[in-house]
Amino acid sequence: MRYLLGFALFTAILSPEFGHAGDTEYFRHIIFDNSLTPETYFYSYAQASGSSSIEQKDNRLPVENGNFVSPPNALRLHWRSQADGGWEAEVRLLNFRYRYPELSGRNLYFWLYSAQPIAADDLPRIMLSTTREGLQVAEFPGSFSDPVPVGKYCGDLPAARWVQVKIALSEFRTASIYDFRPQFVQNVIFLQGRADNVEHTALVDELRFDDDAGSLRETSPQLSAPKNVTAAGYDRHVEVRWSQSTIRDWIDM
After folding, report:
1. If exposure means fewest CB atoms within 10 Å of the residue's CB, which of 25, 34, 137, 188 is most exposed?
2. 148 inside domain
3. 159 burial type by CB count under 10 A (0-12 exposed, 13-18 middle, 19+ buried)
4. Count of Cβ atoms closer than 10 Å to residue 20 Cβ
5. What are phi and psi of 137, to 5 degrees?
6. Predicted confidence (pLDDT) per residue in 216-249, tens digit
């Protein structure tokens, strides 16, 4: 099946009328749902120091294409925490023209998965920043929060099961000289936790702000991933082909 959707969808996102569409509300909540690039996530940053390590390529986080909550992919954190080092992995908000400047919701939600069990104390810490450069807050009124342990909010991570983590935004207290205003978050940062000197791998998907009413998985239609997707670029449009899903699936998203 062939649909000339790519250019139309791209134009819709960039047009003023997009601000009146139902997707506007979606982007008042979502921080990460999937990556357009299959190997690394463009809007990410990862680095390590000392003997600690975090998997990255060109300082970007790798993408997991074989296991996810929302198709077609998730983010992969593969780390080793050492006492003489540290690591961080940043997931940055996707910015585009006419995106509403504030996020909406009282809680941070995300999904975690590991093929092997991970003890709560061995999971990373997490912090939020209103700038896209992590702890660098030279410009006013940039601010960032104190890191909190992920394991405090999900407990031990079981093997081979997706677990949704919920953290109230009130748990994130300012660690900078300015007040921390979570609605202006630009960056979610995972940080080294306990230095257990063991390699761990965890998948992360559907980072979002929301209220207590529910998560994206509970409120959105469940869509199957398109298969055999190919795209060809022309002067004024992109031709996208796939063998699964319907045009209504894409419009309803």
Report:
1. 25
2. yes
3. exposed
4. 9
5. -125, 50
6. 444 444 456 677 888 888 877 778 887 754 434 4
